[in-house]
Every structure is written in C-alpha cells, then in structure tokens.
Amino acid sequence: MSQTRRLSRSRFILMATLVSGLPTSVVVAGRPADFAVGPVIAAPGEAVSGYLEVPAGSDEGTRIPITVVHGSSAGPVLALVAGTHGYEYPPILALQRVRRDVDPKKLSGTLILVHVANLPSFLGRTIYTSPIDGKNLNRVYPGDPEGTVSERIADVLVRQVIETADYVVDMHGGDGNEALRPYLYMTVTGEPELDERSRQLGLAFGLDTIVVQGDWSEEPSAHIYTEWAALGRGKPAISTETGSLGSTAEPLVSLAERGAWNLLRHLEMIEGEPERASAVVWLTEGQVVRSPAPGMFQPAVEPGYFVERGGLLGTLVDYFGDPIQNITAPFAGVVNYVVSTPPVSEGEPLAMVSKVRPAD
Ligand SMILES: [Zn+2]
Question: Measured in angstroms, how far is the CA atom of residue 45 from the centroid of ligand 1?
Fold first, then answer.
C-alpha cells in the first residue's frame, strides 16, 4: 500500500473514530481497519503474535505473550485469557492449538489470545500467587501501574486487552494442588442484558456444570477478578475451569480447546454451531472451605461428588500424620474441587462446595 493511501486511510479512520467513538477497529466500506492490542498490530486477514510489555517498577518487569487474529470481515472482539494462574496448563496449551488452526481469512471479528497472562507464576511453577510479589493475579484487578508486578500485569491487561474486547473469557484449570471437575463460573450482575449475554457465553462453552455467582457488587474496588473487571466495564464475561492438579492430559486440553471454538461459533466469528452440553447442572452459593491450621490434607472425596451437610470432605493431619480436625461440608452440595496434594497453610482452600439449584 502506498504511503499516500495509508495516510488518507488513517485520516478517514480518525474521522470515523471521532464520529463513531470506536477506538480500535473501524469498518471502512465493510472492511476492518488494522487492529492494535498494545504494540501487536494485525491487518485484516492476518494473525500476529508478540508481547505486551510490563515494565519494571518496584520489582522486576515481565511481558505477556499474545496473538491478535484479525478477521477479514467485521465482527466482535473476543479475548481469551489463559495462564492467569501459571500452573493451570490445559487452557495455555489449548490456545496454542487455536492459534495454529484458526484461519484469519475466514474469521469475522477479532480474536485476542492471551497465551500466558502470568509468566512469573508460569515460569516459577507457583500455585495461586506470583513468586515475585506473593500476590494472586486474579485478586488484584483492576491493577495499578505503580504497584507490584501482579498489579502491573492486571493494569496492562485491563487497558490493552479487556477495554479493547467485547467479550472476555478467563480460562483456568484447577491449580497444581486442586483436583477439579470441569465447570465454569458466571456472575449475575443484575443487569439483564449483560447477564443474558454472559449466560449465553457460558452455555456455548459447552461444559455441563455452571456455578452461578450471586455476590456481585457495583463497587469497582470489588472487581478484583479478571471476569469482574470485564463485567464492570459492561463486557459479558465468564471464567472457565478445565484442568486438574497441573495435568496436561489430552481430555482436559481438548475440553478447553473445544470451548474456545464453541465461543467463536456462538459469536458467529466462524461458521457452525457450538457443541453445547446436552444438559446443564446449575450450581449456586459456592463456598470455599478453608484450612483452620497449617498441616497436611487427606481428601475423603473426589471432585464431582455429592456430599451431605456435615459430610466428611477430608482430614487435616499434622506433619507426623496425627489428625488435627475433620473437615466437613457446610451444606449439602457438589464438590467442585478438592485439594489433593498434602501441603496446606492456615486459611488456604481445602475444597469448594456448591448447592444444586433446583430447576426453574
Ligand atoms: Zn486459576
């Protein structure tokens, strides 16, 4: 493209931006303009990979590997985020496959793949928290450009990914210590259209178990999760869980990958219908049961088990193997995940139990 045409096109885009208020992707005569996510810029029909830089601050910096797949025709912007927790591998591996197999020329809209949101946790093989600042990336949104590295990662993801996207899916997979059955979270914000669009995302992802979170707060300071940072900005969002105990087993990677393709089909970014679950179990009031003391946990249940109120979830023992306390279910429900490697610190999760929501 000649320099003159490039200039006139960008001038047109500027005018269109002023008129429409769309900052990143503007349709020029039915054809999308280039799409930028930070320094990673893709032309229509192109997939470009690169890094979002998280500069050093009070501690060391990092970077975030992403791919921008910019379709040849107009459509929504979907952001898929993997590696918020660096020990949750199936979504990370699944997004590499999506990058390999998606055809930008046949894509409508734009797909942003965040391959590993939290490289310090990934490379350091840590559960929950960053080895640099000890913080949980999924508890520090919207982040802080002047904060520690996890807060700066969150800030970069909010400004460059979440605010750029129309839909956000944060893809988790049972941390390195969590035996987990696949499920996803959706939040009820009380905003009917937003909630319905998030619900449709959840159904399209194709898992048979959905945990409905009802503890939404309008207060922005409460929007500490990736999902809530998106919802608070009016973007439909869900969090998915497809993984267990740091496994890279094929069925778990396939489940995450299938979910990604299902979302693209649901949003009509590629052809076809999503493979939905034939029936969905709706769960509510998820409660994380936490350890009263440091020690070792011996689970008595597996993920997906139904438990009675007061039913045994497992036993906390000391370092000699002597029992400290039986850990029991707070109510009758389903075990979403249960910690299944020995070490536990005081206050850490041991299991999550949810109530089964009766059919409407
Ligand atoms: Zn996670």
Answer: 32
